[in-house]
Task: structure prediction
Amino acid sequence: MSYFTLRALTKSYESHAALQEFSLELAKGEFVSIIGESGSGKSTLLRIAAGLLTQTSGEVLLDGKKIENPEQKLVPGYDEIKLIHQDYQLFPNTTVEENITRPLLNYEENYRKHRVGHLLDRLGLTPYKDRLPRQLSGGQQQKVAIAQALAVEPEVLLLDEPFSHLDAIQKRKLIYELKELLGEMGTTVIFVTHDLDDALWFTDTLVVLQKGKITQKGNSKALCEQPKSKYVARLFSAINTLPDRDQSYIRPADIRIRTRGGLVGHVVDQRFLVHYNSLQVRLRAGGQLWEVDDPLRKHQIGDRVYLHVREEKIITLKS
Ligand code: ADP
Ligand code: MG
Result:
């Protein structure tokens, strides 16, 4: 049964539709990532989902109860649904501990101390509890913002590109820790990002948002192997167009380089990347430029190569 429901949400700014009939259902404790480029409507969606922005039409339900928008509710927003922005704001002149305590000021003191202590501990912030935000690294500050949002034990957490300020290593570590913590708490989570890699580190379930509409959703493997559009296909890697075959593509990793047969070409450029060399290969027939992975780092500029496409990996789009 759906616990958090976004139903046919539409938001128009003047004549411009930022969100169109967006629907999504999440079970309690489920995590979903929404991937979309800048301007695709991600922030608009999350603000409506949190009850912080009034939709043009559609509704948001939490456990069957309608979430009221700012026009219907005196104090907009809910303790049950917390939104964390990329540009979170910490109170600059109060310590880490005080920042996390602030949302709990109306709670009983024992509970408050216990809760804050637990969050400091779980997020590895205990050694920094007496510091001011500016005395922390970006990753630590982000954790304080997360702890602040989690202080009131929200049922739903909405993450609006919260890791954008962090470098890749910090980011992965934080995503990993956060997943564990949110899993323990049974929190239902929507994470939006423009970065597919971040989305994949966070969840297996992906929703692709383009111009305010869902264009595809499913697990990462299905999206990678059976994309419904060139846009989705390209999220995962470059794609090479197969000559003489309509709307058919192959990924650089799904091509084998052999000593004979297949498509002949020569290497015109080569890049040393983390796990492989990336080759630019000019095909002899037709002159197309392909991107090909060379995991053995065997080939150099000028080499003649014979490319064998893994037939079962060909992506064919419906026109
Ligand atoms: P994202 O978070 O994916 O970058 P947004 O939800 O911020 O996208 O914006 C979606 C679209 O709505 C964009 O085209 C943006 O310019 C437009 N938009 C967002 N907020 C407003 C606003 N307050 N007034 C007018 N247009 C807006
Ligand atoms: Mg945004």
In short: The chain has a mean pLDDT of 95. The chain has two domains: 4-225, 238-316.
